[in-house]
Amino acid sequence: MSLSISIEDCFEDIIAKSMRGRHISESELVDKTGVSRDILHRLCRGEFCDEPALLMVAKALQLDPQALTMSASKVWRPRAVTMEGVEIFNTPYRDMRVNAFLIWDPASMKGAAFDTGTDSSLLSDRAKELGISVESIFLTHTHNDHIADLDRLKSTCEEVSLFSNELEPWPGTETFSEDAQFSIGDLLVKTYTTSGHSVGGTTYFIEGLERPIAVVGDAMFAGSMGGGMVSFSDAWKNNREKILTLPDETILCPGHGPMTSVGEEKRNNPFFAAEFR
Ligand SMILES: [Fe+2]
Questions:
Q1: Ligand 1 centre and the CA of 146: distance in Å?
Q2: How far is the CA of 72 from the centre of ligand 1 (A)?
Q3: Tens digit of pLDDT for each residue in 137-180?
Q4: pLDDT in tens, 53-77
């Protein structure tokens, strides 16, 4: 399924998120860059019409020029991820799509769901097919698209514990604080609070499979990041300090768009690549 999932944000979305997050208006961007208003409008509409202008805009918005150009050229997407122990479920929500993940320990066949998406039957049917008992449901955050099918998912599990961050508690769940630890069979799960997109956004770092995994919710996307609806600066800082410091081979499981990895995001994500060049 991961092969068919589109990149979540185009370069115009990245420009818009950065303008909002850094409180830079269109007029200020025109003044800062010397790019004409007409060219800026076209870039903001997703028309890759003027590469030198895009480079100026990138610089003014503290985006990596090379990575933003790659995004505008649509030449990059992360390598497909196939690893026993993790599967992605991508379901429609209004005019977009949202991900949920099933992660399990192949030795014990104990598993956990991360978010529900809008139709959790795909995930629960797959767990049943593979003989995985889903013992926990972890919420990355409580925006409706991520928890839309929580009641149904819960009802399909025999005995299941639900968890949410204490900064963003959800009724019927047990809450945890940062640095909590859980297990999924022999897999170890550690929690990091990666707030900024939401008040208690959580990244779950899971070790014990062939590669480590970080389920990041809407903190980061392949080639972008979630909107900093609560605080763009917190979102950026948490992504930089708590996600991009994980080992390069760590598989990133975002709430929207395809799976990616820490190493690929350090090289290709316009919000962060300049930090690692
Ligand atoms: Fe969200």
A1: 7
A2: 24
A3: 999 999 999 999 999 999 999 999 999 999 999 999 999 999 99
A4: 999 999 999 999 999 999 999 999 9
Tokens read off for 249: 């081979």
Residues with Cβ within 5 Å of ion ligand 1?
143, 218
Structure tokens at 175: 């809450």
Contacts of 180 (CB under 8 A, 6+ apart): 190, 191
Q: Contact, 93 vs 149, CB < 8 A? A: no
Among the CATH numbers 3.30.460.10, 1.10.8.50, 1.10.260.40, 3.40.50.920, which is that of 4-73? 1.10.260.40
* Domains of the chain, residue spans: 4-73, 79-276
Q: For 79-276, which CATH superfamily applies?
A: Ribonuclease Z/Hydroxyacylglutathione hydrolase-like (3.60.15.10)
